[in-house]
Amino acid sequence: MALVIRLRRQGSRKKPFYRIVVADSRMPRDGRFVAQVGTYDPNTEPPKLNFRKEETERWLKVGALPSQTVRKLWESSSSAAITA
């Protein structure tokens, strides 16, 4: 099972809210997921980003790969980059 850390869209039309989840890469974008590791709200100024750092790092050690978007969000929020 290939795990990926990606965004799961929530919220209403034109007001997106995202959950950062660990999911099987074969599942659809808003489908079943294994764990929720954070949230991202682009509607606020500045956008709010919450990661559970310890849990995210644990999933990375297990072999989960972050999507490009999650990688960019992580790098913009902290000085430590996600290593794939």
Helices and strands, with pairings:
Layout: E1 3-12, E2 15-24, E3 35-41, E4 48-51, H1 53-62, E5 65-66, H2 68-77
What does this molecule look like?
The protein is α+β, with helices and mostly antiparallel strands and 84 residues long. It has a single domain (3-77), classed as Ribosomal protein S16 (S16 Ribosomal Protein, Chain: A, 2-Layer Sandwich). It has two helices and five strands, in the order ββββαβα. The chain has a five-stranded mixed sheet with strand order 4-3-2-1-5. A hairpin with a 2-residue loop joins strand 1 (3-12) and strand 2 (15-24). The protein is globular, with a radius of gyration of 12 Å. The two termini are 16 Å apart. The model has no long low-confidence stretch (mean pLDDT 88).
How many helical stretches?
A: 2
Instruction: Show unreliable segments.
Output: none
Beta strand %: 35-45%
Main sheet summary: 5 strands, mixed
CATH superfamily: Ribosomal protein S16
CA-CA gap between termini: 16 Å
Q: What characteristic shape results from the CA principal axes?
A: globular
CATH-assigned fold name: S16 Ribosomal Protein, Chain: A
| Residues in helices, as a percent range | 10-25%
Kindly report the average pLDDT value.
88
Task: Trace the largest sheet across and list its strands.
Answer: 4-3-2-1-5
Give me the CATH architecture, please: 2-Layer Sandwich
The overall number of domains is: 1
* Radius of gyration (Å): 12 Å
